[in-house]
Design brief:
12-stranded antiparallel β-sheet; 219 residues; alpha+beta; single chain
Length: 219
């Protein structure tokens, strides 16, 4: 093998190593964004949220598991909506939620029947960077299986003691429908507002967090 051929092979190998190294750097950037979003959620299994809202609505839920795979995070959560029918209803009051952090977004995936929440079972709650005025667009399927395009904006960033509160608006591109949430560091969602559409007119409904408990308090 000639000296010149050896140099060409070594140069090709070096270029390959540089390309792979560059790819790793890109992934590291995504991992850093994902990790930055974990500050928005509780860090311990057993954390409990208690919410109350419109028309005596109430639900409670708890962190069952926190999993990390590579740079991706999953928070598995279960709970129940209060049955105001005193057991006379045949509806399913269970709530199963997964908070997924990947590709620089915090995503809510829910399975429920009566929860006073989004018309979307999958929704990007917030996306990095966590700056006031930051905007992005997402396309999701509503409860009827129809695609909707949402224009999303971090409308406000404020302080609540040592915590930071991010107010996010999700506006349907083709209708008046909107959702709005407050997401608070170390807690997660602390307020939800959605536009409820009726034959008599449209008006906002929703719920707020009235109490949260850490694992040591929930005994």
């Amino acid at each position: 093998m000639s000296c010149r051929l050896k140099k060409c092979i070594l140069l090709s190998l070096l270029i390959g190593i540089l390309v792979l190294s560059s790819g790793c750097n890109l992934n590291d950037g995504t991992d850093e964004m994902n990790e930055a979003l974990t500050v928005l959620l509780p860090s311990e299994i057993g954390f409990v949220w208690m919410y109350e809202g419109f028309a005596e609505y109430f639900h409670v839920m708890q962190v069952e598991a926190i999993e990390k795979t590579g740079g991706q995070y999953r928070y598995r959560i279960s709970g129940d909506v209060a049955d105001m029918s005193n057991g006379e209803s045949d509806l399913n009051y269970r709530v199963d939620i997964e908070y997924l952090i990947e590709e620089g977004a915090l995503i809510q995936i829910k399975s429920e029947e009566v929860m006073m929440d989004s018309i979307f079972d999958r929704l990007e709650l917030i996306r990095y960077p966590l700056d006031q005025g930051s905007q992005w667009t997402q396309v999701q399927l509503d409860e009827d299986g129809q695609e909707r395009t949402l224009e999303c904006t971090i409308e406000n960033v404020s302080s609540l003691g040592a915590r930071t509160v991010y107010t996010v608006l999700y506006q349907d591109q083709d209708s008046e429908y909107y959702e709005k949430r407050d997401i608070t560091t170390g807690i997660g969602v602390t307020r939800v507002e959605i536009l409820w559409k009726t034959d008599e007119g449209n008006f906002p409904i929703g719920y707020t967090l009235y109490r949260s408990l850490g694992p040591d308090e929930n005994t």
